[in-house]
Protein: Methyltransferase FkbM domain-containing protein
Amino acid sequence: MNSNVSKTKLVSFISIVIAIIILGHYWNIHNGYKNEVSSRSQSSDEKLSEGSDKTRNYIVTDNVEFKMETKQTQKKLTKCGDIEEDIRRSSLEQVKPLLPKVPQSHKIKKGIEPLCREDTRPIPDNRLTDEESKRQQSCINNFKTDHAKGSGQFWSGDTQFIRHKHHKYLNSESVVLDIGGNKGEDAEAIIKDYNPGVYVILEPIKTLYKALITMFKKNPNVVLYDFGLGKKNDKFFVNVVGHGGDATSVFIENNKKDSCLLRVYNTTEFLIRLGVSCFDVDLITINCEGCEYDILETLLSTNITQRFRHIQFATHPTLKHLKQPAERYCEIQEKLSRTHVISYQYKFCWESWTRKDIATK
Ligand SMILES: *[C@@H]1O[C@H](CO)[C@@H](O)[C@H](O)[C@H]1NC(C)=O
Ligand SMILES: *[C@@H]1O[C@H](CO)[C@@H](O)[C@H](O)[C@H]1NC(C)=O
Structure:
């Protein structure tokens, strides 16, 4: 009788312990899921769906069966961990207009059409004038000496940090676009000094992009996208060289397994979707291993150029895959000088331009 009672008690006790263990397990899973999703809640729909994939990874760490299943559906196809879905994606649907975040002071007008799409127009007959062509030619002739001088000066001592320190006009109301986020060095410096209200970073290399998400997850002003910009929507497989891939060069033919996916989107369409036709951007800073030519040429082919108060960019004129870097750089100089003036310049290396109406204030 007594032993039966204690047996029953023991069985109930064990059942309760098991129930607690199971409940605790589910509680952990549930919380893990919530944490993972909320840490990414500032990103776009598409990234949210990516986020839920990651959530699955998170949940499966103590569930072997599930782990094997997700491994199959998420086979990593490149060195950077790009999966099938990354490679298939090819639209800008994920881009969310910045308009709700942009201060009233930056808005050009209250557009009836929410993105002011009609306000961005191609520049008709966008060739250089005779005078501009002459200046372009002399710029090309001086390429070798000016490049040596420009990069020599820029990389000596602390001069290079002008790219962070120069932008004293930025403040907590400012809107900044950072094309080529890389390891976040420039973003971190500019955010630390000026804390811009909106800071958009584009970084197409998945490993770097993921590191940026971690770096800025506590900053609600930072908006991150995992693609780059170019003339048109396109994708490449690139060799990521250097530690952590900070010197990625495009167009190197390679086996997918040794390289990483690099997606670029039409610069004009991306900017329109952000809503840039409707408001002024304080600074666009472009540093993307040679893509600055395509981006600046595209920018300068429409009048959206005038929505940028300051335009800062690096130049990489010695990359093998670039055609006519000096010619293109010198043409960009001429076209930019129609609307902007140089605010600092290390020729063929790094420089920043200011819109004429602001420069003369
Ligand atoms: C671009 O041109 C269109 C058509 O002339 C004009 O309505 C619009 O305001 C211009 N946009 C800028 C930024 O100057
Ligand atoms: C890029 O997008 C703009 C705006 O939608 C469009 O007018 C232009 O034709 C596109 N360029 C290319 C090369 O697809």
Remarks:
- The pocket of 2-acetamido-2-deoxy-beta-D-glucopyranose (ligand 2) is lined by residues 231-232, 266, 268-269, 272 (CB under 6 Å).
- The CA atoms of residues 21 and 185 lie 45 Å apart.
